[in-house]
Batch of 2 targets.
Target 1
Amino acid sequence: MRRRSQQVVLLFLVVAATVVVAACNSETPAPNDSSAKERVRVSGSGTCLPLMRVLTERYEQDHAELEFVYLPGLHSGGGIKGVASGDLELGAVSRSLNADENDLGLTYVQLADDGLVIAVHPSVTIDELTSQQVRDIYSGKYDNWAQLGGPDLPMVILDRNEDESAKIILRQYVLGADMVVTDKAINLFYEPDMVEGLVKSPGAIGYFSLGLGLSDKVAVRYLKLDGVVASVEDIDNGSYPVIRPLGLVFAPSASSEIRDFAKWAVGDEAIALMRERGFAPVVSTAGE
Amino acid sequence: MMARPFGRHLYSQIILPLVAASLVVGLLATVVAVYFLGNLTDKWIAQVAESATYTVEERLATQANNMVRMAKLASEDGRMKDALRAGDLTRARGVLVAGNVSLEFDNMMLLDGDGVILASTGLSELQPGQTALDEEYRTFTSLSMGHPTFMEIAGRDTVTVVQPVQVDVDGAVFILVLSEVIDDSFVDQISTSGVDAVAMYDRSFKPMGASVTVPEGPPRESDQSLWAAVESPSPEIEGALAEASDGEFASAAMNIDGDSHSIRAQRVRLPGDPVESSYAYVATVMNQGFTIQTSRTTINLITMWSVFAVLALVGLGGWVARRVSDPLVELTAGAKRIAGGDFSAQIHVAGANEVAELGETFNQMTESLRDRSESLTKKVLELATLYEMSRALGSTLDMNVLLESVLDSALRIFNLDLGYVTIRERETGNLELRAWRGPGLAELGEDALRNSMSEWVIREGRPLIFNPSSDSGGDGQVDAVSGALAALCVPLMTAEGAIGAVIVGSRNPDFRFSSDDVRLLSTIANHVTIAIGNIELFSSLQEAYFSTVRSLAAAVDAKDPFTRGHSDRVALYAKMMGEKLGLSAEQVTALEMAAFLHDIGKIGVKEEILLKPGRLTDAEMNQMRHHPLIGANILKPVGFPWPITPVVRHHHERWDGDGYPAGLKGDEIPLLARVLTVADAFEAMIADRPYRVGRTVEQGVEELRRCSGSQFDARVVDAFIEALDDSELFAGAADGVLLEEIEPDEARAIFVAVSEGMLSSFRKLGGPRLAANVERELNDVFEAQGYPISVSGGRVSVHFSDDSVGELVAMREALGLLDETMSQVSGETLVDHFYSDAMAGLSDRMRLLAHGLEFHI
C-alpha cells in the first residue's frame, strides 16, 4: 500500500515538472542573427526603386544573408556615382549609362522596360491624347480640359526636372528635345511626389512609371497615347514606344552575394514576378 | 494482527495521499502561478518599454521626415535658386532668413558644395566662411541625395537634414542644412506616456535630452532622483546603452529610492540616413514598483488561497476519513467483542449511507447471533437440566422427592421461581398439590385447585399457555393459584389420560411464554409421567411382593393353627428391633419379610409332628429342625428383592454355636437372623399355646436376659428390651388387664379398620362390582342378625349402644359373618389373605390390640 501512494506522489511530481518545463519552452527567444547579414545599400532612380523593392523583398525571403537598405532617392546619375564611390552597393538606374558612366567600370544589368504612362486625375474624363496634344499641354497651349473635349476643369500640369529619366524619356519620345515647358507646369522632385500630385489634384496631368502605377494600383486615369494602351504586352511587342530601361549597377568589387542577386534578378522567377507586377522584363543585354 | 489504536491505518491511508496530493497540487498551482505571473509581469514591462521605444523612434522618424520635406520644399524655392543663379549671396541669405521665420528651425544654413557656410540663421551663430559640414556628411549630398542625420553643430546635438540645392541641371550645387536641437523639450515632444522617463544619448552615451513624466500633485523626491539618474546616466543605464551599442536593444534594472526601475536602451537611426556613424540612443525608464507590488499581492493571494484550499481539502479529507474509519473501528471493536463472546455489542453509525447500513446490518447480525447464542445456551441449559432431571428421575422412587426435583429443574430452565405440580388422586378424583415453589402456595385448598388452569389442562389433556396482553397491567392474574401474570401449564399424560399437571408462571408482567417453552415443559412432563409410571410400577411390584409374603405367611399360619398370628407378631418385634438397631429401611423391610416367612419351612414338616402336643421325640425334633433349611429352599427360587433367604435359614442358630441348621456362632450368624431369633423366641415365650399358657412379658424379658450372650446376641437383646420399653405395646399389660383397658371407641375403630381393610383388599382383587355385592349381602346379614353395622362404599359404620361386652362379642361375630360371606364369594384361602392384608394396613399397636380383642376370622 505505501509503495502505491509513493507512486501516486511521483506521478504528481512528474506532471508538475512537465507543466513547468512546457511553460519555460514557450518563452524561447527569437534567434539574434542580424549580425550575420550583409548590408546592401540601395539607392538611385526613383523610377527604378519600386522595381528594386519588388525584387529585393522576394529575394530577401529566401536569402537571409542579405539586408537591403533603401536610402533616399538620388536619380539614376546619383545612384551610378554612389556605386562608383562605394557609398552604395546597388544603384537603381532608369536610363542607359552615358559614356562617362560607362568608363567607371561598373556592371549594368537591365531588368525591365518600364512604360512611361501619361495619366490624369480621375476627374478628367478623357481616354486618350495624341502626342501633339501632350506637347501642346506642356507648352502651355491649353489651360482648361474643356478645350480638349473634357470636363470644365482647369489644368494642373505636373512636370519633372530635366535631369530626371522620366523627363528625358518624355522629351525623347513625345515632347522633343527643344520644347520649352510652360511656366505653369509644377516641377516635382521625385516620382512618388508626381503620383501623389496626380491622385490628389483634380484636373492634374502628369507622367510616371507604368510599373509603379500597376504594382501599386495607383488610382488615376491612364491615357492611351496616340491610340495605344500602355500595357506590358504593348511594351513587349513594341507598339508602345515610350519606355525606359530599368536596371541596376554594381561595382567590380561587389560581393558574390550581390552578383548572385543580379543573376537571380534576370532569371525566370524574377521575370515572372516582374510580369505579375506590371513591368516588362527583358533578357539581360549587358554581361559581366 | 496487532490492535491499532483508533484505526490509524485506514485513517492515514485515506488522509495521507490526500494531504500529499493537495500539497502537490497547491504547491504546483502556487509555483506555476508565481512563475507565470512573474513572467507575465516581466513580459508586460518589456512590452510597454518596447512599445514606448518604438513610439519614440517613430516620432523621431516622423520628425526627420517632416524636416526632409521642409528641406525639399526650401531647396526648390525659386527665389533662393534665382539668387544663387545670379550669385547674389546677400539676397540668398535674406531668403534663407525669411524662410526660417516661417519654418522655425532651430538652425538653418546654406553651404556651398564644400560645406563652407554661405548663410546661417538660428541658434548656432556660425559665421559664413566656417566649414560646417564634414566630408562624411557631404558624400551623399554630392550624389544629390538629401537625408537626415544626427550631427553636432556648434556644440549642440541636432537632428539635421542636409539637402542638395541644384540651381540648374549642370549648375553649381549648394547645400541647405536644417537642424533641430535635441534637448529636453525635443525629447518631450517625441516621448510618450506609459513610461516614466525617456532620454536620448549620443554615441558616447552623453545625455542629449530627457523627459520625465511627472504625475500631478506635489513634486516627489523620486522624480528628482529619476531626473538625476537619466541626466547623468547611472551605471545601470550606461551598461544598458553599452549593451545596445551593437544595434540591438538592451534591458537593465536599477533601483531608485527603493523602487525597482526597468531600463530599455535602443540604438536608433534616422530613416534614410546613409551616414554609418550617425546614430543615437533612446532609453526608457519605467517604475516597476507598482507592477511588482501588484504581482506580489496577486501571488500572495494565490498562495493564500492555495494554502486555504489545501487546508480545506485536508480538513475535508480528515472528516471523510473519520466518517469512514470510525464506523469501521467501531465495527472492528464490535466484531472483537463478538469474537470474545459478548453478543451485546451494538454499534451506532449515524446517517443513511452504506456504512450506516453496514452498521445496521452488523447490529442485526449481532442480535441474530445473540438470539441464537441465547437459544443455544438455553438449549444447553435445557439439555443439562433435562439430563440432570433424568438422573434424578431415575434415582428416586419417592413421588414427592421426584416431583419437587422436577419442579426445581423446570424453574431453573425457565429461570422462574413460581410453579407447582398437581396430581389427580386415583381414588377420589380430586386434585392434590404435590410440589410447589413460590410464596403462598402451601396453604391452597382443594377448591382453589379445582378452579385453577391445571384443572382445565388435566381435563382437556392439552397444554395451556397464557401471556398477559401488553396493556393489562398488573391486575390480569391468569392463575389464581399462583398469582402468576403469565403462566404455562402442561398435562402429565399417560396412556390412560392426564394424571396431573405442571404449572410454571411469572409475576413479571413483561414475561412471555413461547411455543418453545410449551414444547420444553411438555418434554419435562413426559419424563415426569414416565417416572411416575415407574414409581407406581415399582410400588405395585413391592405391593405384590408384600402380598405374596403375607399369603405365604398366612399359609404357614393355616398349617399350624396354634401359632396363628405368630409370624405377624414376630415381624412386629423384629421391625422394632431393626429400627432400634439403626438398620436401613431396606434391611428393616428385609427383616420384616423374613419374619413373616421364617417358619415357611414348616410346610415341609409332617402335621403330626407339627401339631403334636407335648414333647417331641429326638427323631421328631430332628424333623422339626429341618424347617429353616426347607424354608430357605422354598424361598430361594422366588428371588425376593431382599436377602431374606439366609435370615430364614439361620433363624435358629445360637450365639454360642449350639443352634441349627449350620451351627454358626457369634458374628458368623447374619445380623438379621440374630434379630429374628430373638423376636421368634420372645413371641414363642409370651404367646399362648393350646398346650400351655404363655408367659408374661416380664418373664419373657427375664428369659431373654438370661439367655443373652449364650443363645442370643446380647446387643440385639438389649436393643429389643429398649424397644419394648419405648413402645406402648405392653403398657399396662403387666397386670393382665390389657383388654379391659381398651376403650370401646378404640375397639370400634380397630374393628372398622380391620373390616374396611378386608373389604378394600377384596375390592382390589375382586373389583368394585363383587365388592358391592359383598357389601349388599353383608348389610342384609347384619340387618338379619340385628347388628348395628352397615357397609357402604368400602366404609363401615357402627352404631353400638353402651354395652361394651356385648359389643365386643357382636364385633367378633360380625367379623365371622364377614369371613363367611367373603368365603362364599372367593374361598377360604383368599379370605385369609384379605385378613392379613387388613392387618398389615394397621398400625403396630392396633394390630396387637386386634389380636388381643380376638378379632380373628
Target 2
Amino acid sequence: MTTAFIILLLPLVAAASNLLLLRKKANFSAFVSTFSAAICLVLTFGLIRQDDLNNLGSFNWIKIADLKLDIGIELHGLGLGMILVVTLIGFLVHLFSLGYMREDAGKARYFSGLSLFMFSMTGIVFADNLAMMFIFWELVGVSSYLLIGHWYHKNTAAEAAKKAFLVNRIGDFGFMIGILLIWGSFGSVNFVEIEGSLRNGNGNYDKGLLNWSVFCIFCGAIGKSAQVPLHVWLPDAMEGPTPVSALIHAATMVAAGVFMLTKVLFLIEVAPTAASVIQYVGAITALIAALMATQQNDIKKILAYSTLSQLGYMIMAVGFAGLLSGGEVLGEKASNAGFFHLYTHAFFKALLFLGSGAIIYACHHEQNIWKMGGLIGRMKVTSFTFLIATAALAGIYPLSGFYSKDAIMTIAANKPLLLVIGSFVAFLTAFYMTRLCVVVFFGRARSWSSEEAKEVPLLMLVPLLVLTIGAIFAGQTFAYSWFVPSKDIPHPEGVVLPLILTAIAVAGIIAGFFLYRGRDQEPYPVQVLSRKFYLDEIYIILVRIFQDAVAWVAKQIDRLLIDGLLVRGVARLVTEIGSVLRGMQSGNLQGYAFLFGVGVILVLYIINAAIG
Amino acid sequence: MPTLNEYLLMGGLLFVIGLCGVMIRSNIIVILMSLEMMLSAANLTLVAFWRFGGGEGLPADSYNAQVMVFFVITVAAAEVAVGLAIIVALFRSRQTVDVEELRSMKG
C-alpha cells in the first residue's frame, strides 16, 4: 500500500464509516471527515516531495481480450499542483463547514458527501488512464449531486441537483464516446501508452478521427467545467451549501475539465481543429458568463457566473495547445498558463465563496445583495479577505490573479479576436465584482438581516485567512514552484500587455464603483442579461418539443402495439375461444353422454386409422 | 332353431332401444334402466358369439365369452347400486329426477 493509495482511499473509508456507522453521531462524523482530510493533506505534502514518483502502484482491474483496464496512479507535472490544491482547499472547506454546518440536521450526510467527493476528486487527479478517470469523473458527479441536493426538502435544491446530474450526463456521454474512439485508434486507454504510440507514429490513427475523439473528450469537459452550451447547471448548483459551492463548484470539480484537458495535452497538440473549437467554446463561455454576471442579484449566482467565465479562460488557454505558432505547437506553454489560472483561481474563488458563505451565515441566510449593505463595518475580517479576493480576481498587481490572467492573455495574443474577447471579459470581471462589493460592503444596510450581521466565529475565519494568503502570494514564483516543482512559472514577458490589462481592470473597477455607489436597487436593469439570455427557457422549449415528439411516438406504440395487440389482443383471443367452447357446456346430461360417445367413436376411428 | 344373425339382430335392437332411452328420456331412473338394457344387449351378443363360435352350429371351445358376460353382469350390478344411491341422494337435495332440470353445470 503506497502513500498515494492511502490518500486515495482514506476519504472513502471516512465516507463509508460516516454513512454506515456514524449517522446518529453527527459531531463525530464531522470530526472523522475533517481529520481524514487533514491526514490526506499532510500525506500529500510528503508525497509530492518524494524523489521517485514513477511507481506509485497499479493493479489490473479488468482484462477482456484486448481491453486492459488498470487502477493505477500517475502523478507528475501539473498533477502535483492539482492534488495539493484539492487536498488543501478540501481541508479548509472541511474546516469552514464545521462552523457553517454546525446546526444542520443532515450533518453526517453532508460530511460523508464531502469525503466521498474528496475520494472521487483525488481519483481523477491520480488516474493513469482514461477509463479510471471516467469512473471517478462519474463519482464526482454523484457526490456533487448529493451535495447540491443536500437540502433536498427544498424543491429548488432537488431540482438543481437533478439538473446538474442530467446535464453532466450529456457531456459524459461524449466523453465516453471519446474514450472509445481513442481506444479504437490506439488500442489503449493508458495516458503513457497513448502518448508513446503517438510519438512513435506507429499508432494506426486517422487525423480526422483524432480530431473527433479530442472533441468528444472535450464534451466531458464542457459538461463538468460547465462550458457553453452545458453551463446551465452551475448557477443552479448554488442551491447547495456554500462550502460545497466553494470546493466543488469553484475550486476543484469544475476545474477537473481543465485538468483533464491538460492530461490529454498530447492529443490536443495533434488535433488543431478540435483545439480551436476548444478555444472558441472557452472564449464564448468567458464572455457570456461575464455578461450574465453583471446583472445577477444573488451573491452566489454572481460568483457562479464569475466561475463560469474564469473556467472559460482556462479552457481557452488549454485550447491554444493545438495552435501552431512559429512552426511549433504551443503545447505545454498553453496548458501551463491554463493550469496556472486554475491554481490561482482555486484560491481566490474558494475564498470568495467561503466569504460569501460567511456573509450569508451572518445575514441569516439572506443571499440577495440588494438586501445587504454596509457590511464592512460589521464584518471587518470577512470584508477584508473578500476585497482582497476581489482584487485578485480582477487582476490587480501583485495579487495572484494578475499573473495568471496575464499568462493566459499572453497565450491568447496569438489570436487577436480571442485577445479582444479576453480583455473585454477582464473588464467585465472587474466591473461586476466591484458592483458586488460596493453593494454588499458599502452604503447603508438595506434590511434587518444585514443590520444584525456579526462577524463569524474563528473556526470560519481561519480558512478565510489561509486562503487570503494563497490569493495574495499564489502567483509568485516561490509559491508556484512549491506546488508544481517540475514546471516553470508561466509569467508574462514584457510590460506592455500587463500594463494594458491593469488599465482595463482599473477601468472596470472605476466604472463599477461610480455606477453603483450609493444605489439601493439595480439602476440599469437589462432583462436579457438578468434572464441569462433566456437560455434556460430555450432549453425547456427545445426539450419539450423533442420530448413531446418522442413521447407521442412512444405513446402510440404503447397504446396500439403493446396494449392493443399484445396485452388486450391475447385477452380477447382467450375470451373469444372461451365463448365458443362455452356452448359445449350445455349442462344437459344427455348432451354430455352424446359427446362422450362421439368422442369414443372418434378415438377408436383414429387409433384404427393409425394402426392401419 | 334361431341363427346367429337373428341373435345379433335382437342384440342390436335391444342396444338401439337402450341408446334411444338414454338419449331421449328425461327421467333419470328410466335412463339408468335403458343403460342396463344396453348392457344386456352386449351380453346377448357375447353369448350368441360363444354359442356359434365353434363353426357348423357348434359352441366355441373356450369359455372366454361367458366369463366376460359374468364380469359385465357383476359390474352392472355394482353400477346400479352406486347409480341408484346417487339418484336417491340427488332426489333428496333437488326434489326431482328430471335431467332437464339438472342443469347447474351449464357454462
